[in-house]
Design goal:
By secondary structure, the protein is α+β, with helices and mostly antiparallel strands. It contains nine helices and 17 strands.
């Protein structure tokens, strides 16, 4: 008997508490958190049965969403794509898959009664409901300056559209098509796909004979413009607006601007914002950070000048009083000079990290200037008293990252490994 899986009405993304656009790291983090929360060994006895059930649900949701191929199947067909996994029993009903793919034909759906909405699938033979085409997603790299100020981008998109000559039929005027014998006019054929050991998913694919139309034209009857393909390529001017303060991985959606496919309403054109690394500023949320480069004299004696150019071209002026010594690595916060919020006029903060430029070797000539400088600066640290003293030589160009190299100590490099990585919660899951 197969393991009980998530309810067909239960959204796996909601079950794990992540967005549909979540990446593999977000899904893994959400799963670990829920696996620890619902682990049967970590709850009271009276809650163990319910906790075990939830543990299995989140584990099976993770097993599907962590795998790109399985996740794509789930996004297309829902849990119906996995009803036939190992252990016997009936496979998924093709009607269930078609219902989740195209939203037609099932009981309770506008009184259509079974698969009556599809020719060749039984029922009353009503008109076929248009399917929605797939969304097209692409990465759009944007500079930090444009994210700070906002930007409108105009571009020309080469896209597939319904043929205007034949109005998307693929044939000449007044010529009737012939029904495809392979798919019986449905435009779809049933296929089986191996998803993994003991896991076979029943899928549907466009009929390769009629290209999913359910019918076809003889070559002499095909439209001269689209050659019977029903769509043609067209260049269309489009534009997207990137709002000020937009975040990395934010989605910019142009509804209905994806490629048009026969018998489908077009999907959306989706741009995923990718923030280009900046050579001056580093962004975290609505806050920014940058290095504050000053000289040793400025660190000791103060200064008043423009220290950097902001993302909108403004100079940021800092006045630091004489007598307040700045230390290397010290952080100054400038409120309200970070990234703008998407709503309202508020901004995050700007953090300036002090970097002191020390003089080069031999910047003074002779002993007298050094002696005068030593009298001005605070006295040095007193000698440490010990019974035995060794005078040693040293290298002044060492790299701290080489400490512990070739020693086999796990603390070298990245440090101690997190016990929770991969093997932790997963190993517990496998024992259930």
């Amino acid at each position: 008997m197969a393991e009980p899986g998530p309810d067909t009405d239960q959204d796996l993304y909601e079950l794990l508490g992540v967005d549909r656009s979540a990446d593999s790291n977000d899904i893994k983090k959400a799963y670990r958190k829920l696996a620890l929360k619902h682990h049967p060994d970590k709850v009271p006895e009276d809650q163990r049965e319910e906790s075990e059930h939830m543990f299995k649900l989140v584990s099976q949701a993770y097993e599907i969403l962590r795998d790109d191929q399985k996740r794509e199947m789930y996004d297309r067909h829902g849990m119906a794509a996995f009803d036939g996994r190992g252990g016997g029993g009936e496979g998924p009903d093709i009607n269930d898959i078609l219902e989740q793919m195209f939203g037609m034909g099932m009981g309770g759906m506008g009184g259509m009664g079974g698969m009556g909405g599809m020719p060749g699938m039984g029922g009353g033979g009503g008109p076929r409901r248009p399917r929605r085409g797939p969304d097209e997603e692409s990465k759009y790299t944007v500079s930090l300056e444009d994210l700070y100020k906002g930007k409108t981008v105009k571009f020309a998109a080469e896209k597939s559209v319904h043929c205007g000559t034949c109005k998307g039929t693929g044939g000449k005027d007044k010529v009737k098509p012939q029904q495809c014998e392979r798919c019986k006019g449905n435009g779809l054929v049933e296929v089986l796909r191996q998803m993994g050991p003991g896991l076979v998913a029943r899928d549907t694919a466009a009929c390769d004979r009629c290209s999913g139309s359910g019918n076809y034209f003889k070559e002499k009857d095909r439209c001269k413009k689209c050659k019977g393909k029903r769509t043609v390529q067209e260049t269309k001017p489009l534009e997207i607006y990137i709002p000020r303060g937009a975040m990395p991985r934010e989605l910019i959606v142009l509804e209905g601007e994806a490629d048009q496919h026969p018998d489908q309403t077009p999907g959306n054109l989706v741009f995923v914002l990718h923030e280009e690394p900046h050579e001056v500023f580093h962004r975290v949320g609505n806050d920014l950070s940058a290095d504050l480069d000053i000289t040793l004299a400025e660190a000791l004696c103060g200064f008043s000048r423009v220290v950097l150019t902001h993302l909108d071209g403004r100079g940021i002026h800092i006045s630091h009083p004489r007598g307040k010594v700045l230390q290397p690595g010290q952080v100054l916060k400038v409120p309200g000079e970070g990234m703008p919020h998407k709503r309202g006029e508020d901004k995050g903060d700007l953090y300036l990290i002090v970097k002191i430029e020390f003089p080069e070797d031999g910047w003074l000539e002779g002993d007298a200037p050094y002696e005068s400088l030593a009298k001005i600066l605070p006295a040095g640290t007193h000698d440490i008293k010990t019974e035995e003293i060794d005078e040693v030589e040293y290298e002044d160009d060492a790299d701290i990252d080489e400490m512990g190299a070739n020693s086999g100590d796990p603390r070298y490099g990245e440090g101690w490994e997190d016990d929770d990585e991969e093997g932790g919660a997963q190993a517990q899951c496998a024992q259930q």
